Amino acid sequence: MLKALLIDDEINILRNFQSVIPWEDIGIEIVGLAENGAKAMELVDIYKPDIVLSDISMPVMDGITFVQKLRERDTSCECIMLTGYQSFEYARSLMRYGVKEYLMKPINYEELERVVRRVAESILERRQKARNEEKAWGNVVSLVYEKILYDFLMNYTSITNHPLLTAEVPHLDETEYMLLLVDLEHYAKLSFGWDEKEQRLWNFAIYNVLREALILEKRTYTVLQMRQGEWCLLIEQVRGEKSDVEIDQAKKWANHIRECVKSNVKLEVSVGIYSHCLPISGLAAAYKRVQWEIHLSPGCNTIVTSKNPSCTTHLQIDVLWQITEDMISALKQFNRVKTEEVMEALNVHLKTIPDSLMLRVQQILHYLVLNLLREMREFNMFKQLEEESIWDKLSYSISAKDLLVVMNEMVNQCLDVFVSKKSNVALMESAKAYIHERMAKDLGIDELASTLGISNSYFSLLFKQHFGVTFVEYLTKLRMETAKSMLEEKERRVAQISESVGYLDGRYFIKIFHRYTGMTPSEYRASRKNIGCFHK
């Protein structure tokens, strides 16, 4: 209910106001009656009304003085003023304080009711718009925060130079994170044969389950999809405080997550837990550590990763896994020489491993092949028949030597595919033209990759290699430089420019522009005007 305050020095008029207007039907509660402006100010402090219906001519404090003092405390309260004098000076004084409704006595109560309804509707519409804007802005900030966390997990950036850090993003240097990694069990085999729509459907279903899984724990946490079939949960706590998340508690959460996914999606997941809370700068190393442990611990539903594993077996495993990471990186860079060097390093390292660990090494190599297959599938490197052939070979490849043969075949096949693809330069020039043409629209990697006929991951890598920046960085720079040019045109409003360069949320545009140039759009326009005057 909106709150209304009625002010008049004639008690009969106050009673008429109370009884004649259907306040409750309109959605308004009368919170106070006052005989002059001074008494009304006391009630304003107590009830903070949304609407004031007031006479102008009153003893002690008249209506105009009251509105003046009201505006010193509250700029949003709507005022409906009544007077027995037809004076333009009255109206002009009231307009100065934002009063839009001004009625003459004797009061026509039907007209007054229409005015009250109109004012109430205006207040409710304004509040709903404010709520919608706040919700939209909250969504923008949330997406920015998720992007920042993802970039840190992937080791793409540092706390000092991330392009999206703004005042609205939580204080990252004051937050620590408990890291849980959720991996869909046997994803490489399970998803074999799924088309892109099926992959998105299953991944989106599990993502939604994970977002709701710990909601009753009253914790602040973020769910990020790291790749197909893999999600990271980052549970926040204030940095420097004693952690209230013990490993036993984290294990309970992991079990609950597994149960939620199984009951809702009918699939099994493994959950890896990093044993310590971390600042944002430590997330990348922890993510890789937990990822390795999950893949090297088949059959374990919940895996706790220690901070500093130091035994010889762990060190040997780490080297093997790092070699595979290097191989995937080299393949993504389309670097045949580097890939062959990494394969040679793998062969050399295997010779240093004692026979007592060879059974474990065979298991590791098997999972390394699966991980390579999973990563390369993201780039559409294998056709269905080719992947079927790989699975057939894996079914009878037991020894480390056999697994190395399979891995070599996969690597060579990937390199051949890269060579046979369309010209990378041509692809990127097409992408550039597409971006410039559709800059004002809600443009994303999905749309561009689909237009070019390549996967999202492949597009991202090609784009970074060709332009030296990420797609988001390129698009942001293009939009900001275009906005700067538009701001030099005096007839263009900032809101129009914001929409013209693809930002429907004007506040977000202003903040990105300020971060890019060090000035607000208005300040930039003024600075260019001053430069123009100087040259004249």
Output the keywords.
11 strands; 536 residues; 60% helix; 4 domains; 22 helices; alpha/beta; Alpha-Beta Plaits; six-stranded mixed sheet; five-stranded parallel sheet; elongated; Rossmann fold
Care to describe what's here?
With 536 residues, the chain is α/β, with parallel strands linked by helices. The protein folds into four domains: 2-128, Response regulator (Rossmann fold), CATH 3.40.50; 170-308, Reverse transcriptase/Diguanylate cyclase domain (Alpha-Beta Plaits, 2-Layer Sandwich); 310-416, no CATH class; 424-535, Orthogonal Bundle (Arc Repressor Mutant, subunit A), CATH 1.10.10.60. Helix content is 60%, strand content 12%. The chain is built from 22 helices and eleven strands. The strands form two sheets. Strands 6, 7, 8, 9, 10 and 11 form a six-stranded mixed beta sheet that branches. Strands 2-1-3-4-5 form a five-stranded parallel beta sheet, with helices on both faces. Strand 7 and strand 8 (230-238) form a beta hairpin. The two termini are 59 Å apart. The model has no long low-confidence stretch (mean pLDDT 80).
Give the helices and strands, then pairings.
Blueprint: E1 2-7, H1 11-20, H2 23-26, E2 28-34, H3 37-47, E3 51-55, H4 63-73, E4 78-83, H5 88-96, E5 101-104, H6 109-153, E6 175-184, H7 187-190, H8 196-213, E7 221-227, E8 230-238, H9 247-265, E9 269-274, E10 278-279, H10 283-295, E11 302-305, H11 312-332, H12 336-352, H13 358-377, H14 384-396, H15 400-420, H16 424-437, H17 445-452, H18 456-467, H19 471-487, H20 494-500, H21 506-517, H22 521-535
Parallel strand pairs: 1-2, 1-3, 3-4, 4-5, 9-11
Antiparallel strand pairs: 6-8, 6-9, 6-10, 7-8
Helix pairs in contact: 3-4, 8-9, 11-12, 11-13, 12-15, 13-15, 17-18, 19-21
